[in-house]
Amino acid sequence: MKSNTIHHFNTGLIILSCIIAYYIPFELFLFSYGILGPLHYLTEIGWLHKKNYFTKGKYDFLFLTLACIILVYWNYSPPKHYGFVADIILLSLLASIGLVFIKDWLYRIILIILSLLFISVANNSSHYFTWIAIFLPTIIHVFIFTWAFMLYGVLKEKSWAGFISIITLIVCSIVLFAFQPTSLNYTVTPYVQNSYSLFSELNYQMVKVFNLENLTNVKEIFTSNAGFVTMRFIAFAYTYHYLNWFSKTSVIKWHLVPKKILIITLLLWIISISLYIYDYSLGLHVLFFLSFLHVFLEFPLNIVSFSGIGKELFSLKKK
């Protein structure tokens, strides 16, 4: 598939995701997260492994994997000091700078020490936990990092069709926040509310941070206009995050793996879907580690994307 064709196709997927998210946001999110999500985790981790996770060392990914294991253990075991969750996420992101650009472990350790000092200051901020523990592995990962990955590719290609898709992504996001109909006949069923309950804090914190409405409890996200507005954006961001990955298969070539690996991937995907269909909450808990692992292992790629954007913009400025 030609580059411009892929970009036009992605523009169409962005608009389609936006339209569906506008009318049935909760249902779209649950479908995308439960059906498309597991296949994305499995195929992206395999692709990152082939790319050596975009790090200098062969075994650097073990650092990020260990960090994710510690996070999952800490999340499910006492003591419930949740501030540590934010600390380990931010440390993994900052340490990824060293994994991408520095090979000497002495300098990497110095960077980690400096990162810990920065974290010790940053975690005194009132919104630190919200932005790092709640937003970073969710909407920042699926929207900001996806946008950066797209922009880096478009700048390298210097493709106008690609820029159109970038602009469309931004415009659709603005539309979802700007247009807030109060007369939309939309009711969130008890099943959907129960299935989404583990994510509800994300919506609640978005409403608070962006001062959309004064909600008194988390359950109001299922009945309030502000809850619907944030859910539209979340559903849109997640759905396109997955669709962008699969639509660029011919470019990324994540599917070019041994047949045995591909079969195992598909079997694991089918098992994952079955868990979500049987009990959505069960699927979330079983796949919690895998979902966070792909976020952690993607940190070096995120660093590469932003670094690449800077280099491309600098080269354009020199011309």
Model description:
36% of the residues are buried. The protein is 78% helix and 0% strand. Helix 3 (61-76) packs antiparallel against helix 14 (288-297) and helix 6 packs across helix 15 (299-318). The protein has helices spanning 3-23, 25-50, 61-76, 83-101, 105-122, 128-157, 160-178, 190-196, 200-209, 225-247, 249-252, 259-278, 280-286, 288-297, 299-318. The longest helix has 30 residues, at 128-157.
Mean pLDDT, to the nearest integer, reads: 91
Query: What structural class do you assign from the helix and strand content?
Result: mainly alpha
Helical element count? Answer: 15
% residues in beta strands: under 5%
The total strand number stands at 0
Distance from first to last alpha carbon: 31 Å
What's the Cα radius of gyration? 20 Å
Describe the main β-sheet briefly: none
Helix share, percent: over 70%
Give the overall shape, derived from the CA principal axes: globular
Low-pLDDT sequence parts: none
What order do the helices and strands follow? HHHHHHHHHHHHHHH
Features:
single chain; 319 residues; mainly alpha; 15 helices; globular
Give a concise summary.
With 319 residues, the protein is an all-alpha fold. It has helices spanning 3-23, 25-50, 61-76, 83-101, 105-122, 128-157, 160-178, 190-196, 200-209, 225-247, 249-252, 259-278, 280-286, 288-297, 299-318.
Give the topology.
Layout: H1 3-23, H2 25-50, H3 61-76, H4 83-101, H5 105-122, H6 128-157, H7 160-178, H8 190-196, H9 200-209, H10 225-247, H11 249-252, H12 259-278, H13 280-286, H14 288-297, H15 299-318
